[in-house]
Amino acid sequence: MADIIDGKAFAASLRASIAAEVAALSFQPGLAVVLVGDDPASKVYVANKARQTVEVGMRSFEHRLPAETTQATLLALVQSLNADAAVHGILVQLPLPRHLDADAIIAAISPAKDVDGLTVTNAGLLANGLPGLVPCTPLGCILLLHDRLGGMTGLNAVVIGRSNLVGKPIAQLLLQQNCTVTIAHSKTRDLPTLCRGADILIAAVGRPEMIKGDWIKPGATVIDVGINRVPAAAPGKTKLVGDVAFAEAAGVAGIITPVPGGVGPMTIACLLRNTLTAAKRIESRATLVSEV
Ligand SMILES: Nc1nc(=O)c2c([nH]1)NC[C@@H]1CN(c3ccc(C(=O)N[C@@H](CCC(=O)O)C(=O)O)cc3)C=[N+]21
């Protein structure tokens, strides 16, 4: 039976260290979260973020806009948050309603406040191994891996999923750790065989329980990024499952993350960490300018 990583406990200790650092600052970091539309799952997630932001001593600015918000209105909001000195981090909850151009909205976010690490600037800095803001879920996965494995040099890592938010940045971080990285996706041939070669398997596809126990190399480390809401046994009820068939996989893997309680809580903790990082960088620049 695999060792199950307690992402909830790890995230709580990360938040405690963030709170201690915030308490020692001479200013209060602020995080703005923008939610367009009223997707119920997103609402819960945004509410959790706001609560944890306040718990670590930061200011939380929530902007809930109706589903029919125009591109111009949303752009104007992003620009006002860019200009707001109390805001150090900006997160626009994705996906946006279909009539909005998400790429243009992301491009409008100041890279210094881009705590999702989604702007071309931050993606490019990551690809070149330079300091920027790293997407929260990939950062959370690497912190968990680092805690469990220490060094990862020479390990075969397979990342299933190629999104800009998760798959691509995780692959960059694993490469920085000297893993041999393969990025798989829906067009990959013979995915089970490819997965069986992975010492580290990262599942970020968004398909409930797609990765089966016999796809996993005995003793491998399995990180399940998927958060899929599916019908539960009781009528009318739902439950969360990952991209990995957990019960099967836990019988084969050496180390595995559960869903819920694995990567999800780390994502929010890393969002707070990125906000702290952004705030310290922005404020130190402001101090330099005012000293001139
Ligand atoms: N711009 C943007 N950045 C994001 O990072 C982003 C986004 N948009 N849109 C939606 C997804 C989803 N996401 C989650 C983060 C944490 C949990 C989380 O804390 N999950 C808990 C359980 C939550 C529950 O019980 O519902 C867990 O896995 O244990 C879930 C989902 C971030 N996302």
Automatic annotation (TrEMBL):
Record keyword Mitochondrion present: no
SUPFAM superfamilies: Aminoacid dehydrogenase-like, N-terminal domain (SSF53223), NAD(P)-binding Rossmann-fold domains (SSF51735)
UniProt keywords, alphabetically: Amino-acid biosynthesis, Histidine biosynthesis, Hydrolase, Methionine biosynthesis, Multifunctional enzyme, NADP, One-carbon metabolism, Oxidoreductase, Purine biosynthesis
InterPro entries membership: Aminoacid_DH-like_N_sf, NAD(P)-bd_dom_sf, THF_DH/CycHdrlase, THF_DH/CycHdrlase_cat_dom, THF_DH/CycHdrlase_CS, THF_DH/CycHdrlase_NAD-bd_dom
Enzyme Commission numbers on file: 1.5.1.5, 3.5.4.9
Pathway(s) annotated for this protein in UniProt: One-carbon metabolism; tetrahydrofolate interconversion
Residue ranges constituting the Tetrahydrofolate dehydrogenase/cyclohydrolase NAD(P)-binding domain according to the UniProt record: 135-281
Catalytic activity, reaction form: (6R)-5,10-methylene-5,6,7,8-tetrahydrofolate + NADP(+) = (6R)-5,10-methenyltetrahydrofolate + NADPH; (6R)-5,10-methenyltetrahydrofolate + H2O = (6R)-10-formyltetrahydrofolate + H(+)
Tetrahydrofolate dehydrogenase/cyclohydrolase catalytic domain mapped to chain residues: 5-116
Binding site for NADP(+): G161, R162, S163, I227
Keyword Hydrolase: yes
Protein function: Catalyzes the oxidation of 5,10-methylenetetrahydrofolate to 5,10-methenyltetrahydrofolate and then the hydrolysis of 5,10-methenyltetrahydrofolate to 10-formyltetrahydrofolate.
Subunit-level organization: Homodimer.
Family statement drawn from the similarity comment of this UniProt entry: Belongs to the tetrahydrofolate dehydrogenase/cyclohydrolase family.
Name the UniProt record assigns to this protein: Bifunctional protein FolD
Upper lineage: Bacteria, Pseudomonadati, Pseudomonadota, Alphaproteobacteria, Acetobacterales
Record gene name: folD_1
